[in-house]
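User: Good morning. I'm curious how pyridoxal-5'-phosphate would be positioned relative to this chain. Could you predict the structure with it bound?
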Amino acid sequence: MLKENLDKVLENIAKACERSGRKPSDVKLLAVSKTKPESDIMELYDASYRFFGENYVQELVGKIEDLPKDIEWHMIGHLQRNKVKYIVGKVAMIHSVESKALAEQISRLSEANGLVTDVLVEVNVAEEESKFGVSCDMLEDFLREIAQLKGIRVKGLMTSAPFTENAEENRKYFRKLNKLMVDINLKNIDNISMSELSMGMTNDYEVAVEEGATIVRVGTAIFGARNYKN
Ligand SMILES: *Cc1c(COP(=O)(O)O)cnc(C)c1O
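Assistant: Good morning! Here's the predicted structure, ligand included:
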């Protein structure tokens, strides 16, 4: 059943790619499994799916320990500096870098382990007060500040657009994140060459793909509504 949901989302991504002249293979779908049981993840794993996103460090670490080692995990939630040590070396990418202190901590612990960690910089494109992320105005300075850190590789940008029933309302934010990436790349900042755009969730991933998303993060459409009381 979950596999059917996943296939439906993949099909919608393929159609959005077709509409916008892109290749489906250029878009990675992360199945966002936060709050969902390991059995749900295994249902998709057994159907050959390997790309999962999680938000909470403790939950993520538990799942990594329990589940097969060839799953590709992405940390997409807000990350506190003191918790970086639990996930460095265990995740393929950290999507939520939004402070210099956090970037430094990821870099330091990665270097100590002989690793370079792929990261995305979270941008608060819609400038919502409740959201984490670097503001658009500060992005270039922020990238220049973290560009020399040896234990991280900045692969691109991530955003969580506002919650809306009407995905079209978020198109402008996705377009803006894409433009920010293009503009920054044109500045040829040493060590900064970005290609990934992590944007789009259950309500708006198709529009995000039309606007250039290379990673979409979809939970509810695959696993059903979340119950945070569990
Ligand atoms: C929960 C979450 C998602 C998935 O949200 P859905 O609306 O369930 O698809 C994506 N990105 C982030 C950062 C999340 O916290």
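Residues 2-19 form the longest helix (18 residues). The two ends are 22 Å apart (CA to CA).
Let me know if you'd like a different ligand tried.
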